[in-house]
Design brief:
- The protein is mainly β and 83 residues long.
- Strands 1-2-3-4 form a 4-stranded antiparallel β-sheet, with no helix packed on it.
Length: 83
């Protein structure tokens, strides 16, 4: 019998903002279904939730704005990688 340990969901949504602009929103969500057995002894549950938003202008696909957030992270220092 197998036991589910981990899932990773990646989703991307694209929206037309008018005036030749699009908004791209991507998210990554990790769930752990079994506690880890390493030195960290992490419990099961939501591990990561990361989101990126890009405002892009066409037809040259120029990135006008970029934003990244971490609504959920396992360690206090994780958001240090954000710009």
């Amino acid at each position: 019998m197998k036991k589910l340990v981990h899932t990773r969901e990646i989703s991307i949504q694209t929206s037309d903002m008018g005036d030749h602009r699009i908004l791209l929103e991507g998210s990554l969500i990790d769930h752990r279904f079994q506690p880890t057995h390493n030195e960290a002894s992490e419990e099961s549950g939501l591990v990561h939730h990361m989101v990126i938003r890009l405002k892009v202008k066409g037809p040259g696909l120029l990135i006008e704005q970029a934003e990244a957030t971490m609504p959920h992270h396992p360690r206090e220092e994780c958001p240090e990688v954000l710009p």
